[in-house]
Amino acid sequence: SRNPIEYRTFLWKARQDIRWLTPGLGVKRWIFVILIGTTLIGLGFAVLILDVYRTAPDTWWLPAVSFLSLRFLARPLRALIFGGFGLGLVWLGIWGLNRALLKPFMQPGRNILDAVSAFRKRERGPRIVAIGGGTGLSTLLRGLKSYSNNITAIVSVADDGGSSGELRRSIGILPPGDIRSCLTALADDETLMGQLFQYRFASGNGLSGHSLGNLLITALAEITGSFEEGVAESGRVLAVRGKVLPATLHDVRLVADVQLPDHNREVLVKGESKIPQAAGRIRRVWLEPSNPLAYPPAVQAILNAELIVIGPGSLYTSVLPNLLVPDLADALRVSRALKFYVCNVASQPGETDNYTCGDHIRSLEKHLGFRLFDMIIINNQFSGSLPEGIHFVRPENDLGEEYSIYSTDLVDAENTWRHDSAKLSQAIMDLYYERTGPLQSRETIPNRDNQG
User: From CA 41, how far away is CA 427, in angstroms rounded?
Assistant: First the structure.
């Protein structure tokens, strides 16, 4: 090309390609093996061609070529030896090249073939949207990431307590706490980096109570100029499988209408962290401002989803704040994805005391104004002790026959008031594949009680 810019671009790309031959990368040897294998395959074809031209003139090099081509063997056998040996070397070279390129990124002791196979399977996994917040959502994501890389978590930004609340008040940033937990749950490797993100300072002037992950997201938000970019960069640091998106970028506050038991009167409680402390029955919650715009990628994720999972999580302070964003509610209503609701294992003091599964569903649909769920998933294992003031949410048949209810053992053996991430994700994916096509999970569907 006569264009100097195109010429310089060509030279730059050529230099980048040549860098693959830098000593010490462990790549050249396998390229050489592939070249030898390719040569042997070509020699196998050459054997056949030489036999066709038997009348070739007697030259000084012909006997040497005839000996190297194993002419003293039968022609099909010679072609098979050269071709097979060549194919074997090509396969060995490709295997070694892949190993040389992938090994630096592999966990110690893990098989490369298994890792690549698992990655490809997750890459083809369904498009899943998980909506909620708090510990429940991170537990769900920790299990689902084994089935799909196409996961989008939509998280409430109404939190105003703890480290998130302090950063929100002092810096004016959206609360990063639930987003941090979801990023950690979706991380490819939840070892040192995950622990680092979750590390909470126990002391220190101005640091006590703060999570390092919250501070990092805050710093990245200021460096990149926006909260959403800070979250995205944090996801790259942790190499997350999927995305974590805020429900809205507006500074919203959760407000509740709470009926007090002692005076039989209703009061307004403002602030997500203060609502459970009111010690009354929550009648209704809403956001201020009442009509915040949804984060557009969150709306797009819902519209493109094949499976939408709502919950588990605190009903009024984690799950509903997402659904109270009007654009998200509209997207959920028109979405053609399967919609599952995961009911909490146990009640939450100050929010859902003595609630049944039906109470959870009726409250959600009362706030939304329309029926939403295709399947209700609930735990039916009630053995083990619970902390004082917490009770199991039982699957009483108080929803009528119009709902499909799936009940199975979902309890974490160590924390009986929480879900086990592996059991929960297994149940969700089995139900999804059962409804959309052949069952593709490794295990059979657990014991269930399907009603409706």
Answer: 50
Q: Are 141 and 233 in contact (CB under 8 A)?
A: no
Angle, alpha carbons 142-105-442 (nearest 5°): 40
Distance of CA 171 to the CA centre of its chain: 29
Angle at 16 between CA 14 and CA 21, to 5 degrees: 95
User: Which residues, other chains included, contact 355 with Cβ-Cβ below 8 Å and sequence gap of 6+?
Assistant: 315, 347, 393
Q: From CA 377, how far away is CA 410, in angstroms rounded?
A: 9
Q: Token match 């031959």: residue? A: 21
**What values do phi and psi take at 416, rounded to 5?**
-70, -5
328-363 residue pLDDT tens: 999 999 999 999 999 999 998 889 988 989 899 999
- Choose among 343, 322, 318, 340: nearest CA to 331: 322
- The residues facing 266 across adjacent strands are 259
pTM for the model: 0.75
Q: How many CB atoms lie within 10 A of CB 289?
A: 12
